Amino acid sequence: MSDQDEKQRERAFVPALSRFGALYDPVVALTCREGIFRPRIIEQLNLRPGLRVLDLGCGTGTLAVAIAKAEPGVSVVAVDADESALRRARRKAEEAGVFIEWVRAFADETGLPCESFDRVVSTLFFHHLSPEDKWKTLEQARCLLKMGGELHILDWGRPTTVLHRLGFLGIQLVDGFENTQDHVAGNLTSLVRTAGFSDVESLGSLDTMWGTLDFIKAVRAE
Ligand SMILES: C[S@@+](CC[C@H](N)C(=O)[O-])C[C@H]1O[C@@H](n2cnc3c(N)ncnc32)[C@H](O)[C@@H]1O
Is residue 109 classed exposed, middle or buried when 0-12, 13-18 and 19+ CB atoms within 10 A define those classes? Predict the structure, then answer.
């Protein structure tokens, strides 16, 4: 085992699968309006042949596979820290007949070359990160993007009603209170701006039974 592998094993992270196993995909499909948010974020990516796209915190690979199917001319790389998630993701890609490069790594130290992607996308992932790891992951995303490349995030934002705030308690109980504090406060967009991205935009939101999902777009301009 290499030093890098050893380091990955030692570091803790908030997984999606060890708690839910095979239930993760159906739970997301049934409770997070997946049929709406995935096509919408893919549309937001404005894919064209030749683009290199990175999915950070790819989990079971649903988005990465959908991207590869939506535009077969793009190269897709997908990163997650959880080997069990990546096993499911590989199987999904095989069944769909698409090629994706799967990388087991932490999102803030992927080992991938800087300035090598046109798009970095991430769905339902940032709320798994501590405030410090959010910051480091945004720095890594900025480094990985080419100049003019775009960051697209879909994650929990400030709940819009009391009912959504109560629903979000369910996410906090499962994924942690420290990791999700910036989301309840609606701070993710300003964190992205502070991390040095330009043209940071909120492209709307989507209410679910767990709370409000925000669509964020930003550009690496320097
Ligand atoms: C809720 S899942 C989202 C998966 C997928 N993006 C989706 O839309 O279904 C969050 C994922 O983040 C991964 N994760 C958590 N912390 C991580 C980190 N620091 N680096 C890389 N992956 C991480 C977990 O293993 C899990 O697969």
Answer: middle
SS (H, E, C) 157-183: CCCCCHHHHHHHHHHHHHHCHHHHHHH
Cut 0.85: pTM above it: yes
134 in Cβ contact with 183 (< 8 Å) = no
Overall fold of domain 3-219: Rossmann fold (3.40.50)
Q: Tell me the average confidence (pLDDT) per consecutive run of 10 residues in the chain, 222 residues long.
A: 53 70 90 97 98 98 98 98 95 98 98 98 97 98 98 96 94 94 96 98 96 97 92
Q: How many CA atoms lie within 13 A of 167 on its CB side?
A: 18
Show me where the domains of the chain are located: 3-219
Residues at CB less than 6 angstroms from ligand 1: 13-16, 28, 57-59, 62-63, 80-82, 85, 106-107, 123-125, 128-129, 133
